[in-house]
Structure formats: C-alpha cells, structure tokens
Give the backbone structure.
Amino acid sequence: MSLQKSSGALLLIILLSLGCGCSKVRSNVTSGSRPDGAVIYAAVGDSTGAGLGARQGGYVERLFARIKQARPASRLNNRSLAGANTAQVLQSQVAQIVADQPTLVTVGIGLNDLLQGVTEDEFAKNYEEIVSRLLGTHAFIIITTLPDLSAAPAFAKREAGDLTARLIRYNQRIETIAARYGVELVDVYNLSREALHTRPELFGADGLHPSDAGYEYWAETLWPAVNKAIN
C-alpha cells in the first residue's frame, strides 16, 4: 500500500473512532408515545407531584388529563411520594419507573433536598444519577427547575435570602444536567416566579403547597413541553 493510501486509511480510522458515540451526552429525540399513539406517562416527584393540598388532583394528574384527551389509550404511573428527596427517589422511584417502560417521564424533585439542607454537590450527584438511569427507558424525559419558594406564605416571616441563593444554585445544577444529557428542560422558576409573588391564591391552606389553582398553573406551564413530546 502506498504511503498516501496508508495515511488516508489511518485518517478514516481516526474519524470513525471519534464518531463512535463514546460521549455521555445524549440527545432526547425519542418519541413520547408508542407507535399506536398511546402515552405511558411516569412521574418522578415529591408531594407536589403527588398533588398534596389539592382537591382535584396535582399537576401530574392534570397533565395526564390533557394527554388522555389527545391519546385516549394512554396510562399514568405517578410514582411521586410526599416527603421524597433525590436520595429516596434513587432508592425506590427510579426502579419502579424503569419497570413501567414509559414513553414519557417528568422529573420534579429537589424541594425537600433544599429544605433539608442537602448540599448542592450531593443534590447534583443524586439528580444526575436519576437522569442517567432514566435514560435507559428510552422515554422522552422532561425535567424542571424548582419553583421560587421565597414566594410561599409559609416563608413570609423567615429570612429568605439564603434560601433563594441556594435554590438558584440548585437550579443551575439542574440546567447543567439537562444540557449534559440532552433532556428537555422547563424553567419553572422563571416562568412562574412573577405569578407566585403576585397571586397568593396559587398557594394552598398550608402556605407552602400549591392550591388547585396553583397546580393548574403548574400544569399549564409544563404542557407545551409535554405536548411537544407526545406529538
């Protein structure tokens, strides 16, 4: 083989090696529905995912009602659990969701980590592991930033400065993970911040969890991404 041909073959091998898919970055281009049109929706979450404080369902149930209207054969597996943090999601919810074989997954977790004083590094480590393991389902994954807790009436008499600063750092970690793994991100923090500070009716009787109006607003905020996923 001539030197020119040998060099060309070597270059081709290098190019193929660079394109072997060794990067951990993954583009979330999967469909949110099955070939028959049905959506298998699984939700990762805490009390807000479970709908605590609502009389007519939380944001997960409200999203599913819209999905069901568009895709009647769809089904929901809401694995959200009141009080859950990212470590507990890893211990229980992730395995259940992998077994569900979903086509669509929403991840809304982290508020309990924040309130429990979990460090940003530990939170990010757990959150990244959650997303990494969920990628194995080949579902369309939507993750959300955390809402602005400083707007909650329950924190009206508390110093919110440190809480807000930590929440912003948590959200920065979530944004980084979304970019790294190519999953859909809905910036709930910025999309709902003004409303949470000006519409007290969005909070329930405990001054912390959303009211029915609050969960409806949350579902409306997430719906464009969910609609994109299933269509």
The first strand starts at residue 40 and ends at 45. Confidence is low (pLDDT under 50) at residues 1-29. Strands lie at 40-45, 75-78, 104-108, 140-144, 184-186.
